[in-house]
Design a protein that fits this description.
By secondary structure, the protein is α+β, with helices and mostly antiparallel strands. It has helices at 16-21, 36-43, 91-101, 132-155, and strands at residues 9-14, 22-32, 53-57, 60-64, 85-88, 106-116, 119-129.
Length: 156
C-alpha cells in the first residue's frame, strides 16, 4: 500500500476507505505521541483509523478519532481509547499543511499506522473529497483495467 515493501516497516492499521473517499494529493510521514500502553496495544495489531481525521490547531497538528483499545496486560486504570493525539512533523511541513488546509476542500486524512525502526508512525494524506460521480468513475476505471489485464493474460 505504501511505498516499496520495506521489511523494517510493520503496518498496524490502514484506512482503505480514505482512498475511496478522497483524492490524495500529497503524503506525509508523522510521528505520534502515545502512552506506553497504546504502543503495546498497537504492537499487538489493534487500532482503527476508520473514524480518524487530522486537524491543524495553532502551530500543531492533531489526530482525532483514532481508536486504540486498552492493552489487556496493562494498567487497569486505562486511558480514553479515542483521545486526541499530537502528531510530530517538521516545522516546514506543518506550515505547508496550515496553508493547504485553509484552501477550500482540502483535509488531512490518516492513511495508515505502522512501525518504522521501532517507532510508531502515521502516514497522513492531504486530500480532496471525491463526489459521488467521481467515486463511480474510479470504480468503472478499475473494473475496466481488470478486464484489460484478464484479456491480456488470456492472449499469452
Amino acid at each position: 500500500m505504501g511505498p516499496k515493501a520495506d521489511p523494517s516497516q510493520k503496518t498496524v492499521a490502514s484506512n482503505r476507505r480514505a482512498l475511496h473517499d478522497y483524492e490524495i494529493l500529497e503524503r506525509f510521514e508523522a510521528g505520534i505521541v502515545l502512552t506506553g500502553s497504546e504502543v503495546k496495544s498497537l504492537r499487538g495489531g489493534r487500532g482503527s483509523l476508520s473514524e480518524a481525521y487530522g486537524r491543524v490547531q495553532g502551530s500543531e497538528v492533531w489526530l482525532e478519532g483514532m481508536h486504540i483499545p486498552p492493552y489487556e496486560q496493562g494498567e487497569k486504570r486505562g486511558y480514553d481509547p479515542v483521545r486526541r493525539r499530537k502528531l510530530l512533523l517538521h516545522r516546514n511541513e506543518i506550515e505547508r499543511l496550515i496553508g493547504k488546509t485553509q484552501e477550500r476542500g482540502l483535509t488531512l486524512v490518516p492513511l495508515r499506522v505502522y512501525f518504522s525502526h521501532g517507532l510508531a508512525k502515521l502516514e497522513v494524506g492531504l486530500g480532496r473529497g471525491k463526489r459521488q460521480f467521481e467515486k463511480r468513475q474510479a470504480t468503472l476505471e478499475r473494473e475496466h483495467r481488470r478486464e484489460m489485464d484478464r484479456a491480456a493474460r488470456r492472449r499469452r
